[in-house]
């Protein structure tokens, strides 16, 4: 009956003591665990702080090393850029030398062609393929060869200048990137834990597809430097080649120009000598013509002088043919008269034959006179073309060392 009225929510004393003991034990256990956690936390904080400081210090050192590395390559690129710029400027002056040399070749070529054209105006026997013409044609070939060589060299120079500028552009782009990278790393090196404005960057750890390896980075700048070195060396070799070409072509032009001038001088001397000899012959012919004309006049007079004697003889014979009868005899007088007529007639014929031959000779001498006069005019024309037109025009040829 007593159990029926007992409160079911009440615990026994033993249960109460047990519960208190359990609370005390649980609290002490939790306190001990908490104390261990606090100690571990302090240790962990200290460890992580030291690790963080060490890592940040290592990163700072690496940033500084990276800055020095970038500065080194930037200086290398700067040096190569200065070298390639200077080399390109020098090569541009060589290009101008080539252009002046090319222009200097075209004027003599024009003069040579004019000389060849003028010499086509020679006439008669003087229109000869002589040493002057052969040397002029050779000079034209030499100049054309030199012009072709200079044009090819000028094309090579333009191409080398283009390559130099390409190397310069690569260096400038690399330098621009190096400058930006150094600026960024300078900024990174200046950052501290207390720097205002530092923020969380959630995407900073993402590696984009355009990241390159350190080896590729080194190779990139190294390739640019090697490219600049290669083009600088090629440019130096080309300048040496241009120097040699300009010197050799100038020597070849001078040599051939002197050959042409010497041929002109020799030819003009020969023509003058030939003209002088022709003039001497013409004077001789003129003297002979005068003598022959006097001879013809003398022959005509001699023939005319024989008209009287032949008429007298023939008149006597005609008169004696009318002697009467036996008086018409063939006496010594008649015989002498006939002999006289025959002799005079024969001598007149001889004089006429001599006169005819003299007139033939006079005509031949006249033709010789005309031929010599024409030939002298031919020589005068040749001298005017070669000495006045060609040689004076060639005096303007000036071959310089460009």
TrEMBL record:
Keywords (alphabetical) are:
Cell projection, Cilium, Coiled coil, Cytoplasm, Cytoskeleton, Flagellum
Which residues does UniProt call coiled coil? 133-167, 341-382
One of its GO biological process terms is: cilium assembly
Query: Chief location of this protein?
Result: cytoplasm
Subcellular locations according to the entry: Cytoplasm, Cytoskeleton, Cilium axoneme; Cytoplasm, Cytoskeleton, Flagellum axoneme
Organism's domain of life?
Eukaryota
Pfam families, alphabetically? Tektin (PF03148)
Q: InterPro entries of this UniProt entry?
A: Tektin-like, Tektins
Q: Which GO cellular component term is one of those annotated?
A: nucleus
Q: Does the keyword Coiled coil apply?
A: yes
Report the family membership. Belongs to the tektin family.
Role played: Microtubule inner protein (MIP) part of the dynein-decorated doublet microtubules (DMTs) in cilia and flagellar axoneme. Forms filamentous polymers in the walls of ciliary and flagellar microtubules.
Report quaternary structure and partners.
Microtubule inner protein component of sperm flagellar doublet microtubules.
Q: What is this protein called?
A: Tektin
**Which species expresses this protein natively?**
Malurus elegans
Its gene is Tekt1
